[in-house]
Amino acid sequence: MTDQDAIAALADPSRRAIVEALRKGAQPVGQLAGGLPISRPAVSQHLKVLSDAGLLTCTTQGTRRLYALSPDGIAALRRYLDALWDDAFAAFSDAAKGEPE
Known about the structure:
The protein has 101 residues and is α+β, with helices and mostly antiparallel strands. The protein has helices at 3-10, 13-22, 29-34, 40-52, 71-97, and strands spanning 27-28, 56-61, 64-69.
């Protein structure tokens, strides 16, 4: 997973809705599809993209596959975004002080 993969995966509003739903805990595809205005096959495709980007984990429980947010994937994305904010704040600070970049 790269940071760009995770950001690209989250660019889609349906995928962001899936991530929001999974904030409540692990869920099977059927439960996720029930809360979204897209088909179950579409939800499965979105889950694959999010999983491939490292943002989700999938575990098998009997005949069901449960999807959950990946703590490692979310942490990596957060580190990337924090670094962006740090760079932005440093640039704003330099600009306020009148220092060149």
